[in-house]
Design brief:
Layout: H1 3-10, E1 20-23, E2 35-45, E3 51-55, E4 67-72
Amino acid sequence: MKLSELRKIINDPSLNPDLEIVMSKDGEGNQFSPFSEITIGLYEPINTWDGDFCDEKYMEIGETSNALCLWPVN
């Protein structure tokens, strides 16, 4: 995905500006992959550096999205 495509997505006025951004983890930067897609869903932190993410299509009725997740190609 190109920066211009990402800008179009994140500038969408229908997105809640208070969504937290979560990413696949590896804070040490051991491996990198091109950015692939964004999904909106529910992020539930387990602690300050880790948590679970559920895509909107798998959320239970009544659950509210609170996060935007950035996914790598692999």
